[in-house]
Amino acid sequence: MTLVSPIPSVDPTEARALIDDGALLVDVREPNEWNMARIPGAELMPMSTVQEWWQDLPRDRDIVLQCQTGNRSGSLTEALMHQAGFDNVYNLAGGIVAWARTGLEIETG
Hints:
By secondary structure, the chain is of the alpha/beta class. It has five helices and seven strands; from the N terminus they run E-H-E-H-E-E-H-E-H-E-H-E.
């Protein structure tokens, strides 16, 4: 039996601290979702185009991936770790929904 390491997840407060320390925040939602609400400073890199951009992600800087609820970004975190060898990537548990519930800033419109 092969054991797979768990996906590194951070809560919104931990994510904020990583971002404040220089981590790249990547929003993997689609443009229509981004246009409704987004976390300030996040870079939009949709899951639908992941093959076009994943190789450009930095390996020398922490990366926090986020989506609406953490499911899509969790899947991508796992893929980047286990298939592409990234060791500096974290999933924002609960996504932008948890971020907003924590009272952290959201941009709209």
